[in-house]
Every structure is written in structure tokens, then in C-alpha cells.
Amino acid sequence: MPEPITRTILERFDVPDGNYETVMMLVEMQPTFNPGLHTHPGFDAAYMLEGSLTVIEHGQPDKEIRSGQAWRIPPGSVHQVQVGHEPAKVLAVYVVERGKPLASPWTPANSN
Predict the structure, then answer these.
(1) Which residue of 22, 31, 39, 112 is surrounded by the most CB atoms within 10 Å?
(2) Domain span at 81
(3) Is residue 52 part of a domain?
(4) How far apart are CA 69 and CA 111, in angstroms?
(5) DSSP-assigned letter for residue 60
(6) How far apart are CA 101 and CA 45, in angstroms?
(7) Is residue 41 part of a domain?
(8) How far out from the chain centre does Cα 3 lie?
(9) Could you give the 3-state DSSP secondary structure of residue 77?
(10) Domains in the chain, number
(11) Around Cβ 24, how many Cβ atoms within 10 Å?
(12) What is the pLDDT of residues 53-87, one digit of tens each?
């Protein structure tokens, strides 16, 4: 059985004159995968290459994303994705604080 999610870093480079880095990766997710609520220490932008998913972001309406569509998540926004019934392939670009994890799980206990 394949892993529920695989992440392949395609490029990683520092943003000039700052404490941020850009990470470009290919993210492949199996049908019905849901990573749970999480945040990123910077911007998350993505483009759906294949498949579909729903972006569920606190305080925003759910966004249905299909092949050929792009979306973004602002820094620190609590969100998750729910993959449809087919595998999903996404090109993701993160501009995040250098040295911090790309994503951190979110629970009500760490919302302060």
C-alpha cells in the first residue's frame, strides 16, 4: 500500500535580505487523505496538477480545488485539506521562516 502522502523537494533557496526561505515541492496524496489541522510559518501557495481536494481554512468558506486551479494560505492560518476519491498531485511553494518546520499540527491547546 502506498504512503498516504509523499513530499519531494524540488528546490530550496534563501530569500535575499531576510530570514525566509522558499521551498518548492511536489506533494502526492492518496484518495481521501486528510493531514489534520495545521499551520505554516509563512506563505503557502499551491497549484493542483492532478486530482481534486477541498481546502478547509478556519474563518473561510471551504474551497473546492480541481486540476488546473491554484490557491494560497496566509501565514499562521489554521487549515487542512481533504483529498477527493482520486489521488492528488500538487505543486506547493512555501515562503517560510528559515529553520522552522514547514508545517506544525494545530490543536486548541496550542492556539494561544
Answers:
(1) 39
(2) 5-99
(3) yes
(4) 30
(5) S
(6) 16
(7) yes
(8) 17
(9) coil
(10) 1
(11) 15
(12) 999 999 999 999 999 999 999 999 999 999 999 99
